[in-house]
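Re-run with default settings, no changes from the original entry. Doing this only to confirm the output is reproducible before filing.
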Amino acid sequence: MLVAEAEHLVAELRLAHDPMAARGVPAHVTVLHPFRAVVDDETAIAVEAIAAGIDSFTATFESVGRFPGGVVFLEPEPLDRFTAMTRAFVAEFPDCPPYGGAFADPHPHLTVGSRVDDATADGLDLALVPGLPFTTHVERLTLLVEDDEGRWTVDRSWPLARDQH
């Protein structure tokens, strides 16, 4: 799920501290990675059905978090809405365990820095906190694909259902 509203805050920081940004990956919260290398018509229809069963919603990014290994991230709320999306995809695509099965219960997040030392992580915290909180309306799921040179681009996206609340 792309988070365009985060770009003003995180774009330069991600370019400096998250190798995926330099490879074309925009600010996002991962729903499921890795996914199928080829998204055929049957897979696209299944993704469309999942998306149509999820109401759009507003997400807020209020805090900075850290994972072991020097990962600095922004945490989306409500967290349960993001984990529910991942669970829906895992149920439909059991051949695509999140992060290759490395994490039993992945924690949704927007990565800002990866493999950074403690001092850099502290600096990222200081740079990010003044820009928080911000909100985004989650209304689409977007598929990013990697080309033969390791660059990532948007392939397609699917709308979520309209929020009925």
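The longest helix spans residues 79-92. The chain has a mean pLDDT of 94.
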